[in-house]
Amino acid sequence: MSDPFSSSVLKVEQPRRGPFGKSRYKVLDGDDTVLAIAAPAVDEGRAEAMRGILPGKSNLDARAVQLTTPDGAPLLAVEKLRGRDYTEILGTKEEAIGSFVTERVGRRYVLYDGDGTLIGAVEVDVPRTNFEVLDNDGTKVAHVRKKWAGLATHLLTTADKYSVEIFDPVPEPLRTMAVVTAIVMDMNLHESKEIT
Question: What is the CATH number of the domain that holds 164?
Answer without folding.
Answer: 2.40.160.200
